[in-house]
């Protein structure tokens, strides 16, 4: 039972990371119907931005203020990166066939991975400790402050995004663009600005995930974004793509499934479980858990 | 001359030609005349990649579906053929000792390749059937997922090496076999695409709903295109196994599948010549840039993005060299032109 609870805690904290990355996928897909393959790599860049920023701030004790500063810096870097990717890679192919934009996204992803290996070096780097480390034993289960931070921060981010999209004027405009880009433009919505905001926000959240993973598992490498990105995408689909609470829910479920498979089945199946879930899901409930089925318009 | 006899003669000519050509390049025909081992290896690997690119082009280029799981089918074929050659191969060879030199070995090659291809075809069927309900990017992710699942399962089967890799596969195929099958693949795909069935594939690519309304069985078209393509990928995998003599699941990650996509994107989705040229260019560029290894993939990925922005139809677009001496009756529409499907 204690092992089960421990795995539950581990799974929830891993799942929160997937959820955070999935938010970016779900936002971009919701607005452009594009799988932003490069999103997982933006998350990697976020982790590296956090790494270099914390090296710059070497002096001083680890504190939550320092961690927050590093996180804000990484978010700014990634938001900028997201805007650049949108402007120079995705905008030129926005009106082209779907396959064209998909291949472009794959190209951007490959570029970031390989440029990352070139710039940061292919070897893993160890993330310096940013925040003070506590660990608690509750009912025989070890809870670390990193796990708690990951969980709380991802909940807060999802809540923030939910309020932004559902309760503000910007959110209304974003939803309008997602519903019908051309109609939104005719109604006076600045569609390009909305798309830029979407990319900037999604990329900033990826940076949050990157810094958090650096704090939780202090090892980062330039290819870390591939698997996290793919699994986060599966999480977004699982929750219902375009649905913000769904992304977080999907992330938590994928994290739990993966942790339990590793604990009770075999660690080698770690990477297969998410895809198995995806295939089963697309066969039986393609709209995801919280999503609504969209009718194909002819 | 009756067509059947003519075709038979062509076939015999191809076999004899390949035997002579492979003897020539490997230095067995004229003493002192041969391609050195390293370039020969590159040329042979290029041949295997030609099979993979041309077969993937049937799905991605002609049927307009998007598969990022080709390396998975290649892996099934490679491991299947390798296993067959190791376990059944020696007894078949012993039973066929009465055949002239090389004959028994050729039978083993064909048997093992057939086994690997059939296994890969079954894999293709498993992917093709669910793909009926999915479109575009979802299909891409599912094929990617299937490819990774295949890889993880192979990694967990100890009888074929598991995480150690699969070694001890006999060196049964080289330049001759590879190019024999590369030519067969190109001819096969050309005939498929030129047939009425091929036109239904293109119809599915251009507009699935309209195709269905015109009476095209889109289900059948998509599944068959997956089936043919994965069979050929399995065969290429088998050839790779016999040539490389060692297999590891790390050679079949989805990065490998993306390499095949780069090849057909460079050459032009929906062009057989484009796929061949793309495969050769990719291999030549990969080898040529070996000195700048760490810059190589950065360059390829930039190239991919730039091609998509400035020339989404690739080098050849939908054009193909034709050996018919009359112009093609109709011109096909290129992707990226006409009414966009990006926004729905």
Relevant terms:
heterodimer, A: 298 residues, mainly alpha, two-stranded antiparallel sheet, B: mainly alpha, 69% helix, 1% strand
DSSP strand (E) fraction of chain B?
under 5%
State the major sheet of chain B: 2 strands, antiparallel
> Strand order, biggest sheet of chain A?
1-4
- How many individual β-strands of chain A? 4
Distance N terminus to C terminus of chain B?
A: 56 Å
Total number of helices of chain A: 11
**Low-pLDDT segments, ≥5 res of chain B:** 337-344
User: For the terminal residues of chain A, how far apart are their CA atoms?
Assistant: 53 Å
* Proportion of residues in helical segments of chain A: over 70%
Mean pLDDT metric of chain B: 85
Strand content of chain A is: under 5%
Total DSSP helices of chain B: 13
The low-confidence runs of chain A, each spanning 5 or more residues with pLDDT under 50, are none
- Kindly name the structural category of chain B: mainly alpha
> Whole-number average pLDDT of chain A?
88
Query: What is the approximate shape of chain A?
Result: globular
Residues in helices of chain B, as a percent range: 55-70%
Topology:
The complex is a heterodimer of chains A (298) and B (344).
Chain A: H1 2-32, H2 39-56, H3 64-90, H4 98-120, E1 125-126, E2 135-138, E3 141-144, H5 145-167, H6 169-179, H7 181-186, H8 191-216, E4 219-220, H9 224-239, H10 244-264, H11 270-284
Antiparallel strand pairs in A: 1-4, 2-3
Helix pairs in contact in A: 1-5, 1-8, 1-9, 1-10, 2-3, 2-4, 2-8, 2-9, 3-8, 5-6, 5-8, 6-8, 9-10, 9-11, 10-11
Chain B: H1 3-25, H2 37-62, H3 70-87, H4 89-95, H5 103-131, H6 136-155, E1 166-167, H7 175-194, H8 196-206, H9 208-213, H10 218-244, E2 246-247, H11 254-267, H12 272-288, H13 293-310
């Amino acid at each position: 039972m204690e092992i089960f609870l421990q795995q539950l805690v581990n799974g929830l904290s891993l799942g929160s990371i997937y959820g955070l990355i999935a938010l970016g996928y779900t936002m971009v897909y919701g607005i452009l119907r594009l799988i932003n393959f490069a999103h997982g790599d933006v998350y990697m860049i976020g982790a590296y931005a956090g790494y270099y920023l914390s090296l710059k701030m070497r002096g001083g004790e680890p504190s939550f203020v320092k961690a927050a500063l590093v996180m804000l810096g990484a978010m700014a870097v990634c938001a900028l990166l997201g805007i650049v990717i949108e402007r120079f890679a995705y905008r030129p192919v926005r009106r082209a066939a779907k396959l064209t934009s998909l291949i472009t996204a794959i190209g951007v992803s490959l570029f970031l991975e390989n440029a990352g290996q070139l710039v940061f070096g292919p070897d893993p780097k160890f993330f310096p400790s940013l925040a003070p480390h506590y660990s608690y034993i509750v009912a025989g289960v070890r809870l670390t402050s990193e796990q708690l931070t990951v969980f709380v921060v991802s909940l807060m981010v999802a809540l923030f995004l939910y309020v932004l999209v559902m309760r503000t004027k910007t959110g209304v405009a974003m939803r309008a663009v997602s519903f019908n880009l051309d109609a939104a433009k005719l109604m006076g919505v600045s569609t390009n600005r909305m798309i830029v905001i979407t990319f900037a926000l999604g990329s900033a959240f990826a940076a949050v995930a990157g810094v958090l993973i650096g704090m939780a598992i202090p090892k980062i490498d330039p290819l870390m974004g591939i698997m996290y990105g793919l699994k986060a995408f599966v999480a977004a689909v699982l929750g219902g793509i375009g649905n913000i609470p769904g992304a977080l829910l999907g992330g938590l479920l994928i994290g739990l499934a993966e942790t339990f498979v590793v604990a009770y089945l075999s660690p080698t199946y770690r990477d297969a479980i998410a895809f198995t879930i995806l295939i089963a899901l697309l066969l039986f409930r393609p709209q995801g858990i919280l999503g609504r089925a969209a009718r194909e318009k002819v | 001359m009756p067509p059947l006899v003519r075709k038979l003669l062509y076939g015999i000519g191809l076999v004899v030609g390949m035997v002579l050509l492979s003897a020539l390049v490997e230095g067995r025909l004229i003493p002192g005349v041969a391609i050195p081992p390293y370039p020969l290896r590159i040329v042979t690997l290029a041949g295997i990649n030609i099979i993979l690119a041309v077969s993937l082009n049937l799905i991605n280029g002609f049927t307009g579906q998007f598969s990022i799981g080709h390396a998975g089918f290649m892996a099934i074929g490679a491991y299947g053929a390798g296993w067959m050659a190791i376990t059944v191969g020696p007894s078949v060879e012993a039973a066929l000792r009465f055949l002239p030199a090389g004959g028994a070995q050729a039978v083993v090659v064909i048997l093992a390749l057939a086994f690997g291809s059939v296994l890969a075809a079954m894999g293709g069927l498993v992917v093709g059937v669910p793909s009926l309900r999915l479109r575009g990017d979802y299909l891409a992710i599912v094929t990617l997922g299937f490819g990774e699942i295949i890889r993880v399962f192979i990694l967990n089967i100890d009888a074929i090496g598991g995480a150690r890799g699969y070694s001890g596969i006999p060196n049964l195929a080289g330049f001759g076999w590879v190019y024999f099958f590369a030519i067969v693949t190109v001819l096969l795909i050309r005939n498929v695409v030129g047939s009425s069935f091929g036109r239904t594939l293109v119809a599915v690519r251009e507009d699935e709903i309209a195709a269905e309304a015109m009476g095209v069985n889109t289900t059948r078209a998509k599944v068959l295109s997956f089936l043919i393509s994965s069979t050929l990928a399995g065969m290429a995998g088998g050839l790779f196994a016999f040539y490389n003599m060692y297999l590891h699941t790390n050679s079949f990650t989805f990065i490998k599948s993306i390499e095949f996509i780069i090849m057909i994107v460079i050459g032009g989705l929906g062009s057989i010549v484009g796929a061949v040229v793309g495969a050769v260019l990719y291999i030549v560029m990969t080898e040529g840039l070996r000195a700048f290894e760490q810059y190589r993939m950065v360059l390829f990925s930039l190239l991919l993005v730039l091609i998509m922005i400035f020339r989404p139809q690739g080098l050849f677009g939908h054009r193909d060299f034709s050996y018919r001496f009359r112009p093609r009756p109709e011109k096909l529409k290129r992707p990226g032109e006409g009414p966009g499907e990006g926004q729905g």
